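<derive_structure_tokens>
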Amino acid sequence: MRAIIVDAATGKPLWRSKECASHCGISPTTWRRYVADHRAPSPVAYLDCTPLWDPEEVRVWQEKRPGSPVPGSPAGGVLGE
């Protein structure tokens, strides 16, 4: 089963950290670090203590994110990993 969180008011899906990280090709730890450092979009809502993001906002951020992948890195990794 693959559960999807949907905003009841708008009908739009919302992503947890792991979905955001997966979309961006980074680890959930790196995603949380980006958020804590204000380098990634802020959560739009919370489910209990779980932060949630608007997928479209994450997609736009990822498209504009500089340095991904970082040229010359040992594994062609992503900035901050």
